[in-house]
Each structure stands twice: as C-alpha cells, then as structure tokens.
Amino acid sequence: MKYMLLIYGEECERSDAEREACYVESCALAHDLNANGKYISAHPLHPTSTATRVRLRDGKRLITDGPFAETREQLGGYFLIDATDLDDAMNTAARIPMARTGTVEIRPVIEITGLPQAVTAA
Amino acid sequence: MQRSLWVTLDFKPRSFLQAICHWGGRQMQEFSGRHARQELERIYAKDSRRVFATLVRLLGDFDLAEEATQDAFAAALEHWQVAGLPQNPVAWLISTGRFKGIDALRKETRFRSLLPQLANESDTRQLSEEDIQAEEIDDDTLRLIFTCCHPSLSTTANMALTLREVCGLSTDEIARAFLCSSTTVAQRIVRAKAKIRDARIPYRIPSAEDLGDRKHSVRRVIYLLFNEGYSATFGDSLTRPDLCAEAIRLGRLLNRLMPDSESRGLLALMLLHESRRTARTNAEDDIVLLEDQNRSLWNREQIEEAHSLLAVDNASQSRSVYWLQAAIASVHARASTGADTDWNEIVSLYDQLILAENSPVVALNRAVAVAMRDGPQPGLVLLDEISQAGVLDDYYLLHSARAELLRRSGRFPEAHAAYDRALQLTCQGAEVRFLRRRRESLPSNEDSIKIP
What we know:
The complex is a heterodimer of chains A (122) and B (452).
Chain A: E1 2-9, H1 16-35, E2 39-44, E3 52-57, E4 60-65, E5 74-82, H2 86-93, E6 103-108
Antiparallel strand pairs in A: 1-5, 1-6, 2-5, 3-4
Chain B: H1 5-8, H2 16-23, H3 25-30, H4 34-59, H5 62-83, H6 89-107, H7 115-119, H8 134-148, H9 155-166, H10 171-178, H11 182-198, H12 208-230, E1 234-235, H13 241-257, H14 261-274, H15 277-280, H16 300-312, H17 321-334, H18 343-356, H19 360-374, H20 376-389, H21 396-408, H22 412-425, E2 427-428, H23 429-440, H24 445-450
Parallel strand pairs in B: 1-2
Helix pairs in contact in B: 4-5, 4-6, 4-8, 5-6, 8-9, 9-11, 9-12, 10-11, 12-13, 12-14, 13-14, 14-16, 14-17, 16-17, 17-18, 18-19, 19-20, 20-21, 21-22, 22-23
C-alpha cells in the first residue's frame, strides 16, 4: 500500500550546511528504501516564498502568492513510499531527518484506476 | 433482514439472553435445554469478544467480524440444543462465524471489496475446529488490544474503541461512561474503524522493536479508562464504577497475556485504588479524605491481590512507574489508621518515582507527602517551587493542596484565596462540594489572629 509522507518544518531556520546534510541523509534513506522495494519518489520543495496558488472561480483564474495560512510549519518536501501497513510507514517516517525538528504527516494514498503509468526518472 | 439487526441498531448486547430477546422471541421458545442455554450464556459473557478478536483476523474487517460473531452465537442457539455442546465451543463458534462471514462477504455488496483480500488465502472454505488453537485466540485478543490502542488514533478513540471492541460495551454504555451522546461515541468509533481500514493499521502483535512503546500505549489507555472512572472530571458523582471494573478487567487480561513488571504494577495500582472505593465517599456522595476514611471498608481481597502482584517485583532493580505508584498506595493500605502511615517510606518512593518520571504532578504529590512527614511549612516551600514553574497553574489539585497546607499553618486568609482558585478550576460536583465545605470551615480572620 502507498503512503505519502508529507514533511513539515520551519523554513529558513537551517544553514546551507545543515540543509546539505539533510539532503545527503534523505538520499541515503531513499536508496535504502529503494533496495527494499519501498521507494516510489521523494523531493524537497523550494520555500513557500516561491509558492503560487491557483484557483478557478466562475471560470476566472485567481492567482495569489505565498502560503495560505500563517502557520509556523510549512510543507517542505515529501516521500512517496510503499509500505506493508501503517506501522511500517511510521517506521519509515521516523527515519526522515526532518522528523527530528519538524513533523512528518502520513497520509494513505487512494488507489484509483485509469491513471497513466508515469515515466520514472532515473 | 434479521441477521444484521444488531449492526444496524448498533446494539451490542452484553448478555446472550438479552441478545436473543432483542433478536426475536421465536428462537427463545425453541431453546428448551436449560443447561445448554446457561452454558451459552456463560460462553457469551466470557468468550464472545475472543471469538470476535479471532474473526477480525480471519475476515479482515471489524464490522464483518461483529456480524459474524452474532451470527455464530445465533447458530449455536439452534444447533447446540439438538446436537448438544460441541467439544470445543469457542472453536465451533469461530469456525461457524468464519463460515457465516465469508457467506455474508459473497452475498452483500457492502463487504464485497474485502473478498479479493480473503480469496488470496488458500482455504476460504474449511477451517476445522482442531485448527483453532487456544494460544492463537489469546494472540488475537492481544492483536485486538494493540489495534484499539494504536498510537495513531486519538486517545478518546482509543478509549471508546477498547471499551467497544475488547470489552464489548454498547455505544450507549460508553456514552453514559463518558457523559456524552451516543451519536458522538458512535461517530468516534466509526471514524476510528475507518482509519484502521483505510490507513491500514495492522492487526498484529507489534514487532520486538516497537513492543515496548506500544505496550506503554496500551497501559496508558487502560489507566486513563480507570482514572476516568475513578475520578470523573465532571458530572455529579465522583466515580463511575463500570469504567473502573472494565479497566481492571483489561488490566487482568493484559497481565495474563503479557505478564511483565509494568502490567503487574498497573493492575496492582488499579486494585489498590479500587479497594478504597466505598470508603472514598459518604452516603451523600461527598469526598472523605484518605486520613478520615473508615479503613474497615477497604476491600481486603483486592489489597491482598495487589500486594502479591507487587511482591513479584519487590527485589527487581528496575521498578516501573506503575509499580512505584502502586507501592505508594500499598503503604496506605498497610497502615491501620491514618496516623500509622509510614510517610518516610512514601517520600522515599516518591523520590524514586521522580527519578523514573519527573513530572510536576509527581512533584506535587511528593510535596504533600513531605508535608505529612515534616509539617506544612516544608511542604509549602516545595509547592511554591512548583507554582513558580507555572505549568500546574490551572491544576486545581495544586491549589487545593496549597489551601490545605496553608490551613494547617494557620494562614487562613491565604487558604481561603487558594480554595477560591481551586474552585474556579474544577466543575466536578463532589470536588466542588468538598472544596466549598473546607473553605467554609476555615476560621474567620478574627479567629486566625487569636491563634498563637
């Protein structure tokens, strides 16, 4: 079963070196998951200052910038994984470096039929 | 359609006869064998949740297993009076329930999504009674407990689900216990079951690496249930005995299935508190302080049981937090009068408890024990330190303890203010009456001047 692990944390509180270390650790985790057939995809995201929101109301496109709510923790990246059950997903979530300073939210993925098979990037 | 009546009415009978009366009178009349009926009644009370726990594993769904359990008992009512009791009634019920469940799975669209999962298992047809082992049934009960107490569910969901699925209480009974509406409880349980299904909370005994944490979650839920019953946070009556009885039942079950120091400590702790139930309140349902309680009312049987549980780990190096709390309660239980209490021993146990779990509430209790040993002044000094930390500022017991020690120091106006503050912070009927009484019994300001 697929789970989306959404990684929330405070932005701009890390130095470049810390961020780099976090990427290295996340990469190692992704490789380990991949070796166990649990990895689907993962990416860090640029900060919310680069975010754009799009809404379509009455056929009109409304574009706004910035985060929707002024919460302290923002979505900063994700892991999409395969796990046998929630306990398995929880164990993976606990290994994500940002779990130590931020929060990892586990959301079970709904499988729907008819989606195209994505070309997976190497 | 009769077979799903219990589910649609959300009815979970505690007694089998109640179930059958609810289900319909026809079967009742046909059931003539008094012995078999009594036996079935007994098995229903003792084993229906165990049958259910195994059926959840075999059928992979809580609702389906619930219906299958009820169907299996209904089938037993018909068959056993003709064929007599089977050799292993629980295995018969599981085997029959599984058959009924698979049947329902095929017939009813609402369960159809579960069928592929089950079809993967090689034998959806036969499961002989010999295949069903007692150990496996015990493990299923543990699986059920671990699932209901899963840390990914809210605490309120943990408690409601445990009472419902493990103890077999109806939503009405749970609603009464928590003083909320049946609809609220039903929604809470439906949502929790949906999360178990959709997020795939596993139905298994956690792996060795997770077991410690997860057992901790289970014990926490059981103790919260007990506390909810023992000192109701609101409402008129101080205790809700049903919840305490269920918590103790769960404590016994956990201790039987997973005997360890923590489980023994938790059970002993609950038994020691429970032993004082009748002495804790008077005829008017008002609180009687520990030192004023009629100790002949304490339940000796429960105290003895707790003491033998505690004795197992007496020499152990790593005494659990529950063990230490139970040991403190046990010091009280051994004192024949309030004045006989070994406060020295209690303070020393609190010192160990603070090392194991340094929480402000433990510090507060320790301060009271120190006051009992050394007098109110040293206790007040400790309470002031706790107050300054600020975290317990909204905790009425801090203020009522302070009020009590101020009273004993003769500082009545300050005691009055502390009772006022405590009263602002609790709305539990018996506690409010107690605090008011204590406040009103304070000597007036003029009296306080006269005290040397």
